[in-house]
Design goal:
Layout lengths: L1 H4 L3 E5 L4 H12 L5 E8 L2 E9 L15 E2 L5 H13 L26 H5 L20 H10 L16 H14 L3 H13 L4 E2 L30 H7 L11 H5 L7 E3 L1 H7 L1 H4 L3 E2 L2 E2 L3 H6 L5 E4 L6 E4 L4 E2 L12 E5 L5 E5 L4 E7 L10 H16 L3
Antiparallel strand pairs: 1-3, 2-3, 2-14, 4-6, 5-6, 7-8, 9-10, 11-12, 12-13, 13-14
Helix pairs in contact: 2-13, 3-6, 3-7, 5-6
C-alpha cells in the first residue's frame, strides 16, 4: 500500500471506515481519479467527508474542501426531492395527468401522460423533435414549449427510455406551474437552505471561482455518439446536443438544467439525501413524511431501457436496488448517478446516504467502478463494525 500513502486525502473519516479512505487514496494515486470527494452520512451524521487530488490536469491546484463541480444527472435526484416535497404537501399528485398542472402539455396526444411517467422516464419524451443547438438549453421557454407541443415517441407508461436532458425541464416546469418559482429557486428555498447544503441548480456568479472543470474522457465527450440512426437511443442523445466541455462555460453554469447542471460536492449531495435515508427527517429537520419518503422504494416500472440499453427498475424517479443493479446488500436502497461517474445512493435500512463526485470523467453513462469500489468498502466497513 506504499503508493496509497503518497496521496494526501483530506477531511474526516471515522476510523471504522478507514478502508474507504484507502480506496479513494489508491484511486487517486493510480490516476483513476484526478480530483474527487466522497461522503457518507449515517443517522444524519457525517462518518466520511473526504476529498483529495487536483482540479487541473497539470496537478498544480489541489481539490479543496469547498470545491464544487457539475455532477450531471446526479442533479436529477434533487429534482425528484422537489417533486416529493410538493406531493407531500398535497400540491402534486404523481398519478394525475401532467396537463392538470400544465394545460399546454396536453397537445399532440399527451392528455393522459401522468406525472409519474415523467418522473420515471416513461413519458415518451426522451429527446426533442425540434432541431436545437447547444445554446437552446439555456432558454427555458423554448425547451418547455417544444416538449409541450411534441407527440410522444412511444405509448407513455409502457416502457422507459432515459430522459437524459428533458426530464429536468419537465419536472421543473411542473414545479414552476405549481409554485411560481423556478426549480432552482424552489430547491434553494426548500432544500438547500434548510439543510445548509452547498448545492446549486443554476450557480450564482459569486460561486464560480470554486468550480472545478470536468475532464472529459479523451479530451472531449458528447452525449451523442454521432449516429444518424432513427432509434430511440440515437434520437434521445442527439437532440438536444450536449458536450461535456460546455460545462466549463459561464452560460452553462448560470442556467437551470435540472437533469444535468447541478453543482455541488459529495458532502452536499450526501447531506441532502440524509432526508430520504432518514425517511423524511435528519438532524431535527423534517422535509417529508415517512410515507412519502418510502414511496421512492416502491417499484413503478421496470424492463430494458430503450436509451440506456440495460435493465432498469424505477421507484419514484430513483433507480432502486435489484439483481441487475446490486449496489448494496440491503433491500430499501435507491440511487442515481451522473455522466462521468458521480453517484448518490440512499439506504433507508441502514439510514445511510453516500455520494461520490469527481472531475475525471469515466467513458460512458454507466459502469464506473470507482463508486462501486467505494460502496463495497463502505458496506464492508459497516458489516465489520456491526452496523
Amino acid at each position: 500500500m506504499s503508493e496509497v500513502s503518497t496521496v494526501e486525502v483530506e477531511g474526516y473519516c471515522d476510523e471504522k471506515f478507514s478502508q474507504v479512505r484507502d480506496v479513494l487514496a489508491e484511486s487517486l494515486s493510480k490516476g483513476e481519479d484526478l480530483g474527487a470527494s466522497v461522503a457518507v452520512f449515517v443517522n444524519g451524521e457525517a462518518v466520511i467527508d473526504l476529498w483529495g487530488g487536483h482540479i487541473d490536469e497539470e496537478m498544480t491546484k489541489p481539490w479543496q474542501k469547498d470545491t464544487i463541480i457539475n455532477v450531471y444527472s446526479t442533479t436529477k435526484t434533487m429534482s425528484f426531492l422537489c417533486a416529493l416535497i410538493l406531493a407531500d404537501r398535497g400540491q402534486l399528485d404523481f398519478d394525475a395527468p401532467v396537463a392538470d398542472y400544465w394545460p399546454e402539455f396536453a397537445q399532440n396526444g399527451k392528455q393522459a401522460v401522468k406525472v409519474w411517467h415523467i418522473m420515471n422516464h416513461a413519458a415518451g419524451l426522451s429527446g426533442i423533435d425540434e432541431p436545437l443547438v447547444a445554446e437552446d438549453l439555456y432558454d427555458w421557454e423554448k425547451i418547455t414549449s417544444a416538449l409541450a407541443a411534441q407527440a410522444p415517441w412511444w405509448e407513455p407508461g409502457t416502457k422507459t427510455a432515459y430522459h437524459a436532458i428533458t426530464q429536468g425541464y419537465l419536472i421543473g416546469e411542473l414545479v414552476r406551474r405549481i409554485t411560481g418559482l423556478t426549480i432552482g429557486q424552489f430547491f434553494q428555498k426548500e432544500v438547500a437552505n434548510p439543510l445548509n447544503a452547498d448545492f446549486f441548480i443554476g450557480v450564482p456568479d459569486e460561486e464560480f471561482s470554486r468550480i472545478a472543470d470536468l475532464m472529459p474522457f479523451g479530451g472531449d465527450a458528447n452525449l451523442s455518439d454521432g449516429s444518424k440512426s432513427d432509434s430511440i437511443a440515437a434520437r434521445t442523445f442527439r437532440n438536444p446536443p450536449v458536450s461535456a466541455l460546455a460545462s466549463r462555460t459561464d452560460a452553462w453554469r448560470r442556467a437551470e438544467i435540472p437533469a444535468a447542471n447541478g453543482h455541488g460536492n459529495a458532502r452536499s449531495v450526501a447531506k441532502i439525501h440524509t432526508i430520504l435515508a432518514g425517511k423524511g427527517e435528519a438532524g431535527g429537520i423534517r422535509l417529508l413524511s415517512k410515507e412519502t419518503a418510502e414511496l421512492v422504494m416502491k417499484e413503478r416500472i421496470s424492463g430494458e431501457d430503450m436509451a440506456l440499453k440495460m435493465p432498469v427498475k424505477f421507484g419514484l424517479g430513483f433507480g432502486i436496488n435489484s439483481k441487475d443493479t446490486p449496489l448494496a446488500p440491503n433491500k430499501n436502497v435507491c440511487f442515481w448517478g451522473g455522466w462521468g461517474g458521480s453517484l448518490a445512493l440512499i439506504d433507508q435500512d441502514a439510514k445511510l446516504s453516500f455520494s461520490f463526485v469527481m472531475n475525471k470523467m469515466h467513458d460512458g453513462l454507466v459502469g464506473d467502478l470507482r463508486s462501486y469500489n467505494l460502496g463495497h468498502a463502505i458496506y464492508a466497513s459497516l458489516k465489520s463494525s456491526g452496523g
